[in-house]
Amino acid sequence: MGVSLSAIALATRALSKSFGSLVVARDIQLELPVGARYALIGPNGAGKTTLINLMTGMLAPNAGQIFLGDEDITALEPQDRVRRGLARTFQINTLFAGLNALEAVTLAVCERRGISSQFWKNVAIHREAIDEAYDILAKLKLGDACYRPTRELPYGRQRLLEIALALATRPRVLLLDEPAAGVPQEESGEIFEVVAGLSNDLTLLFIEHDMHVVFRFATHIIVLVGGAVFTEGSPKEIAADPGVREVYLGTRKHG
Length: 255
Hints:
Oligomer: single chain
CATH superfamily: P-loop containing nucleotide triphosphate hydrolases
Strand order of the largest sheet: 6-7-8-3-9-10
Shape: globular
CATH architecture: 3-Layer(aba) Sandwich
Largest sheet: 6 strands, mixed
Number of strands: 10
Structural class: alpha/beta
């Protein structure tokens, strides 16, 4: 049974951020319905990663609010947002090079359960955590690679492992910052195929530069320009918007 898209999973209200005279987020108002598959696009320097950093608490806004469900999380530390169900991946690979894929995700599951300090004592006693970790890997089509050291995985599968580590926190909302960055184009579609197949209970917002991927997998697209929302709409509406084409071709002036 599908999830109603009437409930809001993540929202921002008049969110603003500046560094001195440089405005990097300007009065951003967004609503992500539960179960949504939204894309965040815009030219380089538009403020996409900055917005993700504000939502996850890596940056503090100068003004505005962030809501996870009905809860105002604006003042919460990043780790507290994760505990409440807001997770992200990073553009930069941050995996545990010495662990295999199953160990890495099991450690992340143990961290969520508050038993990570016991992880190295006797891994066998963490059978439930191991089973949960394997289930996550299997959903991301990494089951056959679970015993391979992370550093030996092809880059595309490393990116999927980053998503697996985020899923180990059991998020309600997952923010993906260029999940296919650095991955050959023929593999990026595979990553998004797997991501698109995740539970409808999970709300996704992803940053992606490949417009073919965006229009294929997003149900709604938000266009950010100069730290502000330029427009948003369905893929069909965004594709037909001449202003969006001008922004990407560099013929429209913007701050």
